[in-house]
């Protein structure tokens, strides 16, 4: 019998509402909702959304639990697999304590999956629990928390259309969030808005720009400091907003005195006059949308750049009102499903800081003593693993062997530990696993998702999981019982978990199963009761000590690595519309891998000529960490002195693990020195 089941597209943080048409639990096609507020695209859908069920029917799906014995994986029963994992974890705890264990959650999993994962880590006595948000959004998270008292995105997407200026920084929404770009950004431009894009690459988004600034990778901070300098020096800031709603303006002004546009030109390669024009447009052009992404965040100076941008948002008065919009919009699935339930080594569900008061509160709610000592951040977990300090890890829906900086070091670390991976496919990481547990995919389970504009929605089980695959939360509950902490995980359905989340996180109190199951549009959180929601934040003040935005002094910080004689080019990376993360799902989706089949290197015609490289040649891209061979794409879409690769094909073998942002712990993923030679 044909069924039409409402789901949420799992491929990016916009969260379009889709329907899976299935027959007896087998998917046939995708339909979409022409009227849902998150899918107001009237008949258009991006290629990833249309293809979004194809990977679920791949023959590669994991169907049975596997244990590695004598170097080979053997199929075993669930009981045997869980007993084996529990026994190994107990041995590790007995010999080295709970901090020798680590847990990785995933933005690819539901709010409930992630909530149960972090609770299990804490029930066992460790805060070593992280997810990939550390590698994409953490710099902006730290910066906005400091300036606005909260990292949250402020307004509904509809407010983008009402903006007069759009500043897009290190982000390519036309490629990574195509429905959002077409439906909101382009409509604003049609209404006369002007757009500034900051990106070393002439992206699809940059083609729409009135001003395109192309800094060298990792020097965005210089541009942001100079924009602050120009706006403050020429008194172009919003004086009323600064006076009434911010603190520390004088300190901020003093901190940027030396960073003139002329100085920034020398550092970033962006002409001073263009920086001034961009600053003037932002300050005087009217209500603005200011969005940023990995191009800002994924640097060793990412927090300082995000702080400078948060200051720009505040002094131009583009927050706390209707018709403006600011924040990060991930090109991948929204990290809020893992960030909000506290999958973070220093935060508990909310998220709230891991401090005595909050640890006590959660100890009372959960019935066990929450460990007080902060855990290790993502990259540090693997460093500790390489040193033999972390001996066991549970990895839920992550592929750190490809996603972390300097991936070959991560592989060496994984070799040394007892590794359990719960996933839907074999990945580069499962090669290092001792146990692989087959998980149900997004469309094969019911779960809650939080999209990037804080909309909380339910996605429903539309397809039968293959073989014996199970939802992650069920796997974790089985493991908790075998580990002797089952009494704290008394859930028989995903609704039971959401009800506990309603009690644990005041901002989600009103996002009850009853509300989300019956209302497909969901609600904007904070929703302190079932009747309320909050589409716009900070209308009356900021959640800071004074209720005012805390302008924060900023300073220049070098990127983690700069070109030199040996490695004379900057290497950066970008996302493609047809791929998701390390490609474990999108590269198994027929229509996507056919259109986006391989990696390549974008190189400027002048650099290519100097190196004797022609379009289509095979070239070796080499950094101090390793090398990859790909085809060259000779194009003026990239500026001279910079080369760029899509990151889905293992580009992190080349990136730098030992240059880390001191505040966000983000490794330098987007700017490293390289050399290119013809093969
Ligand atoms: Fe899915 Fe994002 Fe495309 Fe919407 S825009 S269909 S959520 S990938």
Automatic annotation (TrEMBL):
<dbReference type="Pfam" id="PF04879">
    <property type="entry name" value="Molybdop_Fe4S4"/>
</dbReference>
<dbReference type="InterPro" id="IPR006963">
    <property type="entry name" value="Mopterin_OxRdtase_4Fe-4S_dom"/>
</dbReference>
<dbReference type="Pfam" id="PF01568">
    <property type="entry name" value="Molydop_binding"/>
</dbReference>
<dbReference type="InterPro" id="IPR006657">
    <property type="entry name" value="MoPterin_dinucl-bd_dom"/>
</dbReference>
<dbReference type="InterPro" id="IPR009010">
    <property type="entry name" value="Asp_de-COase-like_dom_sf"/>
</dbReference>
<dbReference type="GO" id="GO:0008863">
    <property type="term" value="F:formate dehydrogenase (NAD+) activity"/>
</dbReference>
<dbReference type="InterPro" id="IPR050123">
    <property type="entry name" value="Prok_molybdopt-oxidoreductase"/>
</dbReference>
<dbReference type="Pfam" id="PF00384">
    <property type="entry name" value="Molybdopterin"/>
</dbReference>
<keyword id="KW-0408">Iron</keyword>
<keyword id="KW-0479">Metal-binding</keyword>
<protein>
    <submittedName>
        <fullName>Formate dehydrogenase subunit alpha</fullName>
        <ecNumber>1.17.1.9</ecNumber>
    </submittedName>
</protein>
<keyword id="KW-0004">4Fe-4S</keyword>
<dbReference type="InterPro" id="IPR006478">
    <property type="entry name" value="Formate_DH_asu"/>
</dbReference>
<dbReference type="InterPro" id="IPR006656">
    <property type="entry name" value="Mopterin_OxRdtase"/>
</dbReference>
<keyword id="KW-0560">Oxidoreductase</keyword>
<feature type="domain" description="4Fe-4S Mo/W bis-MGD-type">
    <location>
        <begin position="2"/>
        <end position="60"/>
    </location>
</feature>
<keyword id="KW-0411">Iron-sulfur</keyword>
<dbReference type="InterPro" id="IPR006655">
    <property type="entry name" value="Mopterin_OxRdtase_prok_CS"/>
</dbReference>
């Amino acid at each position: 019998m044909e069924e039409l089941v409402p789901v949420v597209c799992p491929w990016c943080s916009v969260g379009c509402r889709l329907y899976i048409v299935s027959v007896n639990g087998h998917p046939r096609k995708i339909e979409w909702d022409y009227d849902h507020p998150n899918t107001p695209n009237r008949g258009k859908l991006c290629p990833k959304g249309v293809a979004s069920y194809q990977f679920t029917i791949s023959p590669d799906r994991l169907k049975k639990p596997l244990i590695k014995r004598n170097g080979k994986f053997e199929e075993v029963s669930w009981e045997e697999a869980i007993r084996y994992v529990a026994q190994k974890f107990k041995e590790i705890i007995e010999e080295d304590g709970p901090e020798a264990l680590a847990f990785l959650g995933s933005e690819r999993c539901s709010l409930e999956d992630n909530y149960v994962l972090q609770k299990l880590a804490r029930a066992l006595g460790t805060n070593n629990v992280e997810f990939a948000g550390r590698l994409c959004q953490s710099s902006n998270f730290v910066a906005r928390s400091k300036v606005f008292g909260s990292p949250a995105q402020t307004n509904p997407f509809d407010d983008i259309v009402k903006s007069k200026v759009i500043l897009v920084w290190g982000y390519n929404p036309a490629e990574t969030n195509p429905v959002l770009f077409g439906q909101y950004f382009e409509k604003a431009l049609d209404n006369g808005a002007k757009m500034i894009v900051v990106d070393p690459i002439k992206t699809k988004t940059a083609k729409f720009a009135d001003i395109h600034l192309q800094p060298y990778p990792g020097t965005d901070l210089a541009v942001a400091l100079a924009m602050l300098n120009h706006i403050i020096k020429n008194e172009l800031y919003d004086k009323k907003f600064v006076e009434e709603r911010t603190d520390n303006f004088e300190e901020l002004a003093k901190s940027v005195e030396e960073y003139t546009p002329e100085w920034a030109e020398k550092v970033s390669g962006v002409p001073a006059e263009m920086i001034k024009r961009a600053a003037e447009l932002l300050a005087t052009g009217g209500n603005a949308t200011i969005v940023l992404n990995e191009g800002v965040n994924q640097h060793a100076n990412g927090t300082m750049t995000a702080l400078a941008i948060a200051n720009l948002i505040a002094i131009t008065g583009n927050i706390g009102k209707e018709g403006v919009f600011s924040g990060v919009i991930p090109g991948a699935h929204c990290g809020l499903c893992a960030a909000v339930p506290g999958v973070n080594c220093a935060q508990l569900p909310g998220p709230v800081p891991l401090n005595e008061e909050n640890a006590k509160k959660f100890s009372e709610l959960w019935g066990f003593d929450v460990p007080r000592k902060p855990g290790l951040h993502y990259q540090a977990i693997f460093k500790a693993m390489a040193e033999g300090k972390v001996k066991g890890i549970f990895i839920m829906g992550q592929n750190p062997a490809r996603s972390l900086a300097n991936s070959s070091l991560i592989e060496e670390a994984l070799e040394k530990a007892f590794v359990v991976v719960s996933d839907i496919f074999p990945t580069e990481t499962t090669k290092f696993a001792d146990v692989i547990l087959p998980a149900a995919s997004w469309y094969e389970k019911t779960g809650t998702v939080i999209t990037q504009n804080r909309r909380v929605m339910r996605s429903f089980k539309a397809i039968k999981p293959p073989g014996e695959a199970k939802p992650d939360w069920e796997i974790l509950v089985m493991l908790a019982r075998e580990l002797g902490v089952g009494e704290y995980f008394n859930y028989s359905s995903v609704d039971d978990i959401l009800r506990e989340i309603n009690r644990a996180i005041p901002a989600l109190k009103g996002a009850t199963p009853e509300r989300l199951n019956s209302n497909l549009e969901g609600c904007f959180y904070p929703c302190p009761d079932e009747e309320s929601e909050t589409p716009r934040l900070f209308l009356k003040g900021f959640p800071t000590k004074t209720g005012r935005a805390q302008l924060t002094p900023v300073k220049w910080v070098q990127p983690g690595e700069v070109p030199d004689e040996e490695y004379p080019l900057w290497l950066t990376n970008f996302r493609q519309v047809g791929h998701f993360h390390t490609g474990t799902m999108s590269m198994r989706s027929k229509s996507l891998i056919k259109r986006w089949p391989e990696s390549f290197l974008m190189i400027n015609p002048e650099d290519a000529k100097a190196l004797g490289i022609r379009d289509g040649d095979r070239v070796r891209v080499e950094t101090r960490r390793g090398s990859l061979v790909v085809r060259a794409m000779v194009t003026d879409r990239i500026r001279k002195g910079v080369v760029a690769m899509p990151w889905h094909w293992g580009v992190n073998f080349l990136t730098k693990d030992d240059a880390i942002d001191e505040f966000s712990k983000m490794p330098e993923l987007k700017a490293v020195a390289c050399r290119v030679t013809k093969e």
